């Protein structure tokens, strides 16, 4: 057997092992970040529960000031939508699918570019005893085989989590700075 054949067989075994490992990864992913903000939930709600307010601190909007966005559906609340197109942050849409005013909002998040994905995003506001609010931002969804394979090389929690952390810091500055 030639050295070339041995190298090819070794490469094939390594690829099969990689594919096998990727197939054992979870069928769903979840990314969540939390931040305590020194503002009451009723002050934060317009910035979290409504898409126009959310876009005042949305880290993805800040990554591309030239993003082309449009609002549709209901003016606010369930059924309100926001769609965007950007060379830097891709193409997609958000739709509010559920709300518990002052406490939580659920959204359907659909990406078209740079890859197709259909996930859920949720924000929750939990008042603290000292008048502040703990804000959590969570995204979760299915992980198909390609996502599982990509996950072997890229840590989704670290990548998206950093953006969530930046966004929550933006929200904190807006709310605590008196501009909310």
From TrEMBL:
Source domain of life: Bacteria
Residues of the signal peptide: none
Name of protein: Polyketide cyclase
Annotated source species: Pelomonas aquatica
């Amino acid at each position: 057997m030639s050295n070339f054949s041995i190298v090819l067989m070794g490469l094939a075994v390594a690829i099969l092992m990689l594919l096998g490992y990727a197939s054992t990864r979870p069928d769903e992913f979840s990314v969540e970040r939390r931040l305590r903000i020194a503002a009451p939930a009723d002050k934060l709600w317009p910035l979290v529960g409504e898409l126009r307010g959310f876009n005042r601190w949305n880290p993805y909007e800040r990554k591309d000031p030239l993003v082309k966005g449009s609002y549709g559906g209901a003016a606010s609340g369930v059924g309100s939508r926001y769609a965007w197109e950007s060379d830097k942050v891709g193409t997609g849409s958000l739709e509010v699918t559920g709300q518990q005013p002052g406490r939580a909002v659920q959204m359907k998040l659909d990406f078209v570019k740079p890859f197709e994905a259909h996930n859920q995003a949720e924000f929750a506001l939990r008042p603290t005893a000292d008048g502040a609010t703990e804000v959590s931002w969570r995204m979760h969804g299915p992980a198909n085989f390609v996502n599982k394979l990509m996950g072997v090389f890229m840590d989704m929690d670290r990548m998206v989590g950093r953006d969530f952390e930046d966004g929550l810091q933006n929200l904190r500055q807006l709310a605590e700075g008196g501009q909310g």
